[in-house]
Write a structure and sequence with these properties.
Blueprint lengths: L10 E5 L2 H6 L4 E5 L32 E3 L4 E4 L2 E12 L5 E5 L1 E3 L8 E3 L3 E7 L6 E8 L6 E6 L6 E6 L4 E6 L9 E8 L4 E5 L2 E5 L9 E10 L14 E11 L1
Parallel strand pairs: 3-6
Antiparallel strand pairs: 1-16, 2-18, 4-5, 5-6, 5-18, 7-17, 8-17, 9-14, 9-18, 10-11, 10-17, 11-12, 12-13, 14-15, 15-16
């Protein structure tokens, strides 16, 4: 990241909710409310992503992930991602962790967000050591925009990143960003500027955007850190992360 969150305080005049986007001419065009079992194959895929070198697992990027759709369960309108030690060894010799990932890539629907869309999710941030949840995008080896990344060792901090045009910020909020607490996080993929929102308040504008013809698949997942930049899991688990909706306005 290149920006200190102290430079990007919430703009209370720039609030964003579903009704706000509707008033601005945007409509809800796609959503996952987790009110039914995961629609594997048709809406979501959970056993592979092209963002991982080996599809189902990834020794790169300081991750211990080995994807297993069984690690994402739904109950009472909430999806829970659960990670535990796996009986697999990664190519770098580290012990893998079975964990959950949802992506629209490879699904029959093949939904992609594009320039101008606003996406938001409501998540319960994890407190388990080694947890690394994120909502991000991916296509053709690039097109990544991170609506958020989170690490419990920085308990009040979200990482906000636009890897398309190299911009980002750390956003710190001791009231809204707290382990084991629900928070709504969103981003609007503008052509010339990506905006990020926390609980309806704009917290960062990157001034670079994604360009006019950008599009990408969605990924919501729980990664596990290998310990290089953030602590690795301290025991066999489980480590959990929860989400109760994912919505896209266009």
């Amino acid at each position: 990241m290149t920006a200190d969150s102290a430079e990007y305080m919430p703009n209370t005049s720039a609030t964003a909710t579903g009704s706000t986007w509707s008033a601005l001419g945007k409509s809800l065009i796609w959503s996952e409310e987790f009110s039914a079992p995961i629609a594997w194959g048709s809406k979501w895929v959970g056993d592979r992503t092209s963002a991982y070198r080996y599809g189902s697992h990834n020794p790169d990027d300081n991750k211990l992930d080995w994807l297993d759709p069984g690690c994402v369960t739904v109950d009472g309108g909430v999806a829970t991602f659960t990670a535990t030690q796996a009986g697999h060894t990664l190519q770098n010799g580290r012990q893998a962790w079975r964990t959950g990932l949802l992506t629209t890539e490879y699904s029959a629907e093949g939904f992609r967000v594009r320039t101008g869309d606003y996406i938001e999710t409501r998540v319960k941030l994890p407190c388990g050591t080694g947890a690394w949840p994120a909502l991000w995008t991916w296509k053709d080896g690039e097109n990544e925009v991170d609506t958020f990344e989170y690490h419990p060792d920085n308990p009040n901090l979200l990482e906000l990143s636009n890897h398309v045009n190299d911009a980002g910020a750390y956003h710190t909020d001791a009231h809204a960003v707290v382990p084991d607490r629900w928070v709504t996080i969103g981003s609007c993929y503008g052509e010339d500027c990506v905006d990020w929102y926390v609980n309806g308040e704009r917290v960062f504008r990157d001034g670079t955007g994604v360009g006019a013809d950008w599009s990408a698949y969605l990924i919501l997942n729980l990664s596990l850190c290998a310990g290089e930049y953030h602590p690795a899991p301290s025991g066999p688990g489980p480590v959990t992360f929860a989400a109760d909706h994912l919505r896209v306005y266009r």
